[in-house]
Amino acid sequence: MRRGCEEASDGCHGKFRGFGYRMTLARQSILDVLSRTSKHLSAEEIYHEVYKTHPTSGLATVYRTVELLVQIGLVNKFDFGDNRARYELEIGSEHKAHHHHLVCMNCRRVIDYTDFIEEEVELLSKTEKGLSKKYNFQIKKHIIQFYGLCDKCQ
Amino acid sequence: MRRGCEEASDGCHGKFRGFGYRMTLARQSILDVLSRTSKHLSAEEIYHEVYKTHPTSGLATVYRTVELLVQIGLVNKFDFGDNRARYELEIGSEHKAHHHHLVCMNCRRVIDYTDFIEEEVELLSKTEKGLSKKYNFQIKKHIIQFYGLCDKCQ
DNA sequence: TTAGTAGTGATAATCATTATCAATAAGGAG
DNA sequence: CTCCTTATTGATAATGATTATCACTACTAA
Ligand SMILES: [Mn+2]
Ligand SMILES: [Mn+2]
Ligand SMILES: [Zn+2]
Ligand SMILES: [Zn+2]
């Protein structure tokens, strides 16, 4: 059951070391929280979750770690319009794979979707190739979000 | 030369009234600023620009107006990762048409692109149709951003 | 004109995120 | 295992973008 967490943590451990960072208990627990959830957590929400097993950890460390994870590329940072950053593991979790988002403009609910990805992936790689050449821009990642009204809000 | 501005303002005037809002001098000048530029301005940048012809206008009004414009759908609000919201006219400007963005993860430069849109548009409408049905989600708009390194930063 | 209300400017308040700094602990050398 | 170097941390103050307040002004409709 916990495999996802451990996999994520282990993989991250190596990645951390590779970048010259240390793997600490605080970072470990933050990674665990992120790999355990299927939600898009804010820094404070991560902090509360970490608190349950690691009450000595501080909020500042959550901010620092999460920012680090974004730099390394293990975590994605999103703005869903509720005035706080939200974070999500990019890979390595049992819950998550690369996906895009539907954001309800009314209730702010966020839906992950992986359907239609096959076709999207094809066009994306084509688009990325074209853009790279035309603008001499080296594309690392993309964010695709559809805004609208969810079933309960229309 | 100013056609773009006036078109935008005029169109907006009607839209404002339609939503039960008044078209004021302050709102007018904010719209003018937005339709005159090709940049992605922050609230404070808009304020400084408005100040040149309208020194009595306040920053709070810029925030209020710009948020109003987002609700109405005339303006798009973006997060390019520099800790402030940036705004851009959705339509009706000589400078702008619907487009997507390349964001440099290093220097934070933002490039508008409209190339490849034809193919993207096709897939997008297909994707939107599928998502709408599957999730019973009514899609109003989308945000597509590619992150990476610009020519000067790689 | 007049009452009712939307909009405004100044500014205080909010609150997510950062910076500071002394104390702590990861992890390599010996 | 012990010691040393220094990255990391927790507490907390500071920052800064965005919002809320409020008294006042400008529309608008009758
Ligand atoms: Mn997601
Ligand atoms: Mn743009
Ligand atoms: Zn909703
Ligand atoms: Zn750059």
Number of β-strand runs of chain A = 6
- How confident is the prediction overall: mean pLDDT of chain A? 88
Q: What is the number of independent domains of chain A? A: 2
CATH fold label of the largest domain in chain A: Arc Repressor Mutant, subunit A
- Give the strand content of chain A: 15-25%
Radius of gyration of chain A: 17 Å
Counting copies of identical and different chains, the oligomeric state is homodimer
CATH class of the largest domain in chain A: Mainly Alpha
Order of helices and strands of chain A: HHEHHEEEEHE
How would you characterize the largest beta sheet of chain A? 3 strands, antiparallel
Describe this structure as you would to a colleague.
With 154 residues, the first copy, chain A, is α+β, with helices and mostly antiparallel strands. Chain A folds into two domains: 1-91, Orthogonal Bundle (Arc Repressor Mutant, subunit A); 95-154, 2-Layer Sandwich (Dna Ligase, domain 1), CATH 3.30.1490.190. Helices cover 47% and strands 21% of the residues of chain A. Chain A has five helices and six strands; from the N terminus they run ααβααββββαβ. In chain A, β2 and β3 (85-89) form a beta hairpin. The radius of gyration of chain A is 17 Å and the shape is globular. The termini of chain A are far apart. The interface between A and B is large, with 37 and 37 residues. One zinc ion binds at residues 104, 106-107, 109, 150, 152-153 of chain B. Chain A binds a DNA duplex (30 and 30 nucleotides) through residues 20-27, 42-44, 56-61, 63-64, 83-85.
